Amino acid sequence: MPWDAYESYKEAGIASRKLFHEKMTKLKRELKETEEKLNKYKDETTAARWREHNAKLKMRAMSEEMGEIEEKIRRIEDRIAQKNSRRKEIAEKYRENLRVKQVWEGFTSDIEQKMRELHEAQQHTMEVQRMNKGLSKVITVLEHKIEKAENRASKASDRAFVLRQKLAVHRHLTERRPERLAQPDEKTLAPMSEQEAKIMEMRKNLKDAVLRRREAEKKRCALQRKIDIMEQALQNYKRRNLEFQVSKRELLSSNFY
């Protein structure tokens, strides 16, 4: 009986140990499989981390590339904006140049007209100056003649005064002369009448000379005023022409390139 129990315990122990060994083998196999799976997971995790790292590097490179592309796009947009602005400036400058060209053409035609008017004014001024010079010579001659006539008139006036005094004395003596005395011959008084006629003629000539002098002086003054007006107009034209030349240079310097 005890032996049977021993055998039974022995068999039970062997079975238990065998079962334990089987379990241990199974556990070792499972542990090995688990370790293999764990190593596999570790490798996969490492590979995944490397893939993630590579992906991050690629993302960073792509971000930098995107930044460079965006910077290039911004620069291109800036250049396009500058070109558009430049195009607008060129269009505005072109319109301004067209306007300046039209103004220049108008100024050119106006200059030609003003030059013709200036030439005509200069010719007319020279002609008036020649006329004024001729009138000045005539006035000088007339003044000389008038001076001579005035001298002759002064001498004639003095002589007429003397003759009047003599005539008054003669009449006074005639009135006091007795009736028996004969009257003086009329021929003795003839020179007095001739002298008076000469005096009247001289006075008339003097008056005519004075009138001619006044008329010549009026003509000279009128011509002088006309010359002054034309010279003033010529000065005004030169001033306007100078202002136009200055404006033309300013337009050319500011609008053409």
Q: Mean pLDDT, as a whole number?
A: 73
Distance between the termini: 134 Å
Helix content: over 70%
| Radius of gyration, whole Å | 70 Å
Class from helix and strand fractions? mainly alpha
- What is the total tally of β strands? 0
Element pattern in H and E = HH
Unreliable runs, pLDDT <50, ≥5 residues?
A: 178-190
Percentage of residues in strands: under 5%
Counting DSSP H or I runs of 4 or more residues, the number of helices is 2
Largest sheet: none
Envelope shape: rod-shaped
Short note summarizing the structure:
The chain is mainly α and 257 residues long. Helix content is 95%, strand content 0%. The longest helix has 175 residues, at 2-176.
What does this structure look like?
- With 257 residues, this protein is mainly alpha-helical.
- Helix content is 95%, strand content 0%.
- It has 2 helices and no strands.
- α1 packs antiparallel against α2.
- The protein starts with a helix and ends with a helix.
List the helices and strands and how they pair.
Elements: H1 2-176, H2 186-255
Helix pairs in contact: 1-2
Keywords:
mainly alpha, 95% helix, 257 residues
